[in-house]
Amino acid sequence: MRTSLRPAALVLAALLVAACSTGASPTPTPTSAADACAKDNLALVAPGKITIGTDNPAYQPYFMPREGGNTSPWEGDYVGDPTTGEGFESAVAYEVAKRLGFAPAEVAWIPVKFDNSYAPGPKPFDFYLAQVSYKPERAATADLSDGYYFVNQAVVALKDNPVASAKTISDLQKYKFGAMQGTTSYDLIGSTIKPEQATSVYDSNDAAIAALNAKQIDGIVVDLPAAFIMIATEQVENGVIVGQFPIPTGADAEHYSLVLTKGSPLTACVNQALAAMKSDGSLETITKEWLADKTNAPVFTP
Predict the structure, then answer these.
(1) HSE (CB half, 13 Å, CA atoms) of 112?
(2) For labelling, which of 62, 73, 169, 219 has a CA lying 20 to 30 Å from the CA of 124?
(3) Could you give the CA distance from residue 42 to residue 4 in angstroms, rounded to a whole number?
(4) Are residues 176 and 281 located together in one domain of the fold?
(5) What are the residues whose beta carbons fall under 8 Å from the beta carbon of 199, sequence distance 6 or more?
(6) From CA 248, how far away is CA 59, in angstroms rounded?
(7) What sign for the dihedral angle of Cα 79, 84, 88, 94?
(8) Segments forming the whole domain that contains residue 17
(9) For the chain, which residues score pLDDT lower than 50?
């Protein structure tokens, strides 16, 4: 039987009443904000376990292959297996689950197409992660958690293309770039590079990679982790990461969010877990282990 929403809802309602009260603070009671996030009070899609969704294929370095072969359905070249706990997002997911009270054996993974993760309506997962950048339009149809990774962008090119020697943003302006439509990478080309030639727009990163390999464009703009995947898996033939752009700060800082059903009572608990991971340094440790060693591309100067 599905875990009831009622205990968590009652606790949250009590907290709202207390927060809105005036005058002297009420005498503390055994009920607290932490109780709403206690394992037994969580509203889950399946009882006794936490269900996590991600895209399939699940690429490195977010998810790493299982030695001896991946479990079904996580199969294919360069494809990771989320169930290993290895890889940046797999490690983040298991750590969040741990903070919510779940052992690795109580974690279930399901494949969900990226675009479907934030589509309107109920979800088949408790939370989802697959490099989903926060966007207001996505937050209108699903809950997006606080950030667990703050993203900068990078340029990928062929080693023999002159753009590969670019050191500054102004150096990039004379070249032709491409990016996947609707992405922050595409937005950055117009707002930051401001190239002299029109930007080529593609339905997918695979299409942009094909254009780059065919020498129809000089470079692709993608987020830095994706750039390393392209090079590590040799999707770009004789490719190189030309450089990375400084990480934006403040309200403009792009970040990856966990995705939950709109209005999910679990969202506050996930954010609480992420805050604890940031506070005690465990998120930084995970990030350093799986991503920091791969971020040695030079930073473009103006």
Answers:
(1) 26
(2) 62
(3) 8
(4) no
(5) 176, 177, 178, 179, 186, 189, 190
(6) 25
(7) positive
(8) 6-149+257-294
(9) 1-31
So what's the pLDDT on residue 34?
Answer: 61
Residue 210 belongs to a domain: yes
The rounded distance, in Å, linking the Cα atoms of 180 and 55 is: 17
pLDDT value at residue 59: 84
CATH code for position 261: 3.40.190.10
In a domain, 231, yes or no: yes
Helix, coil or strand: residue 8: helix
Q: How far apart are CA 237 and CA 190, in angstroms?
A: 26
- For residue 103, with 0-12 CB atoms within 10 Å meaning exposed, 13-18 middle and 19 or more buried, which class applies? exposed
What letter represents residue 166's amino acid? A
Question: Would 37 be classed as within a structural domain?
Answer: yes
Which residue type, as a one-letter code, is found at position 218?
Answer: D
Let me know whether 59 and 203 are in one domain: no
- Determine how many CB atoms are found less than 10 A away from the CB of residue 292: 12
Report yes or no: 81 and 74 within 8 Å, Cβ to Cβ. Answer: yes
CA-nearest of 136, 86, 107 to 39 is 107
* Same domain (yes/no): 142, 73: yes
* Residue 100 and residue 165 in one domain: no
Task: Report the C-alpha gap between 264 and 45 in whole angstroms.
Answer: 11
The verdict on 271 and 126 lying in the same domain is yes
CA distance 160 to 90: 35
Rounded Cα distance, 154 and 150, in Å: 13
Where do the H-state alpha helices sit in 21-87?
33-36
For the four alpha carbons of 123, 128, 131 and 133, in that order, the dihedral sign comes to positive
In the numeric block, the tokens 């340094």 are attached to 281
Residue pLDDT, tens place only, 103-157: 999 999 999 999 999 999 999 999 999 999 899 999 999 999 999 998 889 999 9
